[in-house]
Automatic annotation (TrEMBL):
Protein's recorded name: Glycogenin glucosyltransferase
Domain of life according to the entry: Eukaryota
Record organism: [Candida] anglica
CDD domains the record matches: GT8_Glycogenin
Upper taxonomic lineage: Eukaryota, Fungi, Dikarya, Ascomycota, Saccharomycotina
InterPro entries referenced in this protein's UniProt entry, alphabetically: Glyco_trans_8, GNT1/Glycosyltrans_8, Nucleotide-diphossugar_trans
SUPFAM superfamilies on file: Nucleotide-diphospho-sugar transferases
């Protein structure tokens, strides 16, 4: 029966990766197996589909049966909302036209021919409902879902589809969390056949076990560019793995084709306007000097205090000088506090006094007691106040 490598492409943003992978398998490693791709046809342009059809043997459209996980989950758990598309890997178990399939993420680059994997791990060596995959470098008790060897079958396909409807079944919100729950954790690891790490090496800037890398570098079978930044997002001259990917990409396409493929990427439909943070430094176009943009911006709040208003640090020659500065600072703060209290006092007292006077006039409350305050007499007066307030106002002519 037919065997195939297969990748997934749900939108233009992974087009360069998918095409490079397809070319690498076919033209570079001259695989004897089919090279297939699952695509969401509705999210791809006609020219992209033409390019895909020129590289891949089998192009399978899944636009009528897309499965998505919650982008909120992939965002909050992984910081990668775009990975909500990766649940579509489930459709690979439905491809029973193939006896064994090796699924590869479109951000992978085979360094050696992977054809021997079909004989070594595929076919009858994999019982129904199990898979083969390499451990994940971030958590090696989990497999990385960028390379999976599997035998498609309907029973597993239906079970997986059902399994994916419950958000609790993916610990990272994406396919790797889901597939590990299903093939690894649910069966205590029994349904995960562990492949060597060499089949899914994930070098990133933040993780690199250099001595081990140097020891095994000649045996690496496949590189996987995990994370949000992919090689096609920009040409790098400092990352040797990205350079390797670019060499492969440029080997099979002309400059114009490359521009068009990358133009079809994420940026194609986005109109970028320069976003500016008002607190950022600005470069004066004429002098080339850095300008302090903060200086031109009025405070948003009256009490706003900006760092640039803090006096520069100074050195003191003696302890006496420090004491003097502290004393001055204390005096200036207490003076301003006093002023604030006074103005508050004036404001409220003035108002109260004025109101009291007008009440006295209005309701004819005699105040012959002078400034002396007699609580009993006052209470007597206050108790009579409501009737005075309620009495009809006398019309003044
Ligand atoms: N993918 C896709 N469109 C998307 C996101 C992902 O087609 O918007 C496919 C693509 O094949 C990609 C795979 O799903 O390689 C898994 O995503 P990614 O490789 O970005 O995950 P990572 O390896 O970084 O965890
Ligand atoms: Mn990947």
């Amino acid at each position: 029966m037919t065997t195939a490598f297969i990748t997934l492409l749900t939108n233009e943003s992974y087009l360069a990766g998918a095409l490079t992978l397809g070319n690498s398998l076919k033209k570079n490693h001259k695989t004897t197996h089919k090279v297939a791709i699952l695509i969401d046809k509705q999210s791809l342009s006609k020219s992209s589909i033409d390019l895909i059809s020129s590289v891949f043997d089998d192009v399978i459209d899944i636009s009528d049966r897309l499965i998505k996980s919650s982008p909120i989950d992939t965002l909050t758990k992984l910081g990668r909302p775009e990975l909500s598309h990766t649940f579509n890997k489930i459709h690979i178990w439905d491809l029973i036209q193939y006896s064994t399939v090796i699924y590869l993420d479109s951000d992978t680059l085979p360094i050696k021919s992977l054809d021997h994997l079909f004989d070594k791990y595929g076919g009858t060596k994999l019982k129904q409902g199990s898979i083969a995959a390499s451990p994940d470098s971030g958590w090696p008790d989990i497999f990385n879902s960028g390379l999976i060897i599997l035998n498609p079958n309907h029973e597993t396909y239906e079970e997986l589809k059902e399994f994916s409807t419950n958000p609790i079944n993916t610990f990272d919100g994406a396919d790797q969390g889901l597939l590990n729950e299903y093939f690894n954790l649910k069966s205590n690891g029994k349904n995960w056949h562990r492949l060597p790490f060499l089949y899914n090496v994930t070098p990133t800037d933040s993780y690199q076990y250099t001595p081990a890398y140097d020891r095994f570098v000649d045996q690496i079978q496949l590189i996987h560019f995990i994370g949000g930044i992919k090689p096609w997002h920009g040409k790098s001259h400092s990352n040797k793995h990205h350079e390797l990917w670019w060499k492969e990409f440029e080997k099979h396409f002309t400059k114009e084709e490359i521009n068009s493929i990358l133009g079809h990427g994420e940026g194609k439909n986005l109109k970028f306007t320069k976003t500016e943070n008002v607190w950022d430094e600005e470069i004066n176009e004429e002098s080339g000097e850095i300008e302090d943009s903060k200086a031109n911006i009025p405070p948003v709040f009256p009490w706003e205090h900006r760092d640039d208003q803090i006096p520069a640090s100074r050195t003191f020659k003696s302890f006496k000088e420090i004491e003097q500065v502290v004393e001055d600072e204390f005096n200036s703060i207490s003076t301003s506090i006093k002023k604030n209290i006074e103005s508050l006092g004036k404001l409220s007292l003035g108002k109260i006094v004025k109101d009291q006077e007008s009440l006295k006039d209005k309701y004819n409350i005699d105040s012959n007691e002078g400034d002396q305050w007699d609580p009993i007499a006052s209470f007597d007066k206050v108790s009579k106040l409501p009737s005075k307030f309620l009495s009809k106002e006398e019309k003044k002519d």
